[in-house]
Amino acid sequence: MTETASRPTLEAVAARAGVSRATVSRVVNGGDGVREPLVERVRRAVEELGYVPNQAARSLVTKRHDAIAVVIAEPETRVFADPFFALQLRGISKELTAHDNQLVLLLTEGRDDHARVARYLAGGHVDGALVFSLHLDDPLPGLIQGAGVPTVFGGRPGWSDGTRDVVYVDSDNRGGAREAVRLLAGLGRTRIAHITGPLDQTSAADRLDGYREVMGEDDPRLVVESDFTPGGAERAMRQLLDGCPDLDAVFAANDLAASGALRVLRERGRRVPEDVAVVGFDDMLPVAEQSDPPLTTVRQDIEEMGRIMARLLLRRLDRSVPEEAPGGVVLPTTLVRRASA
Q: If we measure between CA atoms, which residue out of 103, 92, 107 comes closest to residue 69?
């Protein structure tokens, strides 16, 4: 006997529950019009027999696939090396799992992958998409809009043409940066440097704006663009020390960048925080708590951002919930004091 032959059928569930096949189909596919006592009998029969609905057949009835694409506009080497993405995916996965939806992960190694992702989304494999880590010139938003797939973005979108209604989830990047730099200034530091993230991403641009709002006019020696990675931050930190050897504080655009800056400061014989105070952004505990010294940083709830992204998308897909106006959700940040500042 094959595995397929031994799998319980809709007819078997109907016989066990003492109802018609059509009644079972309505119950397992989420249809209306079945009295609650019959619903309970069908559910009990499904559980006793171990019946699993055929997803293809169910999709024909419900017009849903119960699958959500998560599109990360970064190469896999970056995604699997940065705990930020793991935390955001954990939040998304928890929310989707709680609503019996599958997560389909799509990464873009380069421009050639954009058309592939757009084709997949337009092919009717998923009900919606969660998209994050976009860059300003990224064609993905336009391609996804063309695919007609309901979408929620992670991070404030960077386009300003006013032609696209968007739903997004972000953190208060600018406010968090202001708080970090004000802390350093309040400690009496006067030559506060900033290692930015990639400025074609709105999170990095907003953190630079927050830094500037506190510091005023830029000293070009004190701001170096980097890429949110430890290696990039090490190069940036060396450039900062070469150009301004008497700097006394660093605000790094994320915790990984702060960890790279700490390594270079240690190499150059600078004590942290006595000689140079350091503040990061994210509060990713495996990085922040295990840094030497432990890192003072701005906390954003990355996992909760993922949960809210998924929740907003599922709400958009729920036909029983009235359609809400598109808009953004911006989560607050908090400063977490440790030993580096």
A: 103
Going by C-beta distance under 8 Å and a sequence separation of 6 or more, which residues neighbour residue 74?
Answer: 85, 107, 108, 133
Residues found in the chain: 341
Q: In what order do the strands lie in the sheet with 334-336?
A: 223-224, 192-195, 249-252, 277-282, 296-299, 334-336
pLDDT tens-place string over residues 149-205: 999 999 988 865 544 578 999 999 999 999 999 999 999 999 999 999 999 999 999
Coil, strand, or helix at residue 225? coil
CB 268 within 8 A of CB 163: no
* Interval 259-288: pLDDT, tens: 999 999 999 999 999 999 999 999 998 899
Residue for token digits 């019959």?
A: 38
pTM for the full predicted model:
0.81
Task: Tell me how far apart the terminal alpha carbons of the chain are, to the nearest angstrom.
Answer: 68
Which residues are bridge partners to 79 per DSSP? none
**pLDDT tens, residue by residue, 190-237:** 999 999 999 999 999 999 999 999 998 778 899 999 999 999 999 999
How far is 159 from 238, CA to CA, in rounded Å?
A: 33
The kind and range of the H/E element at 239 are helix 230-243
Helix axes 202-215, 173-186, angle to 10 degrees: 40
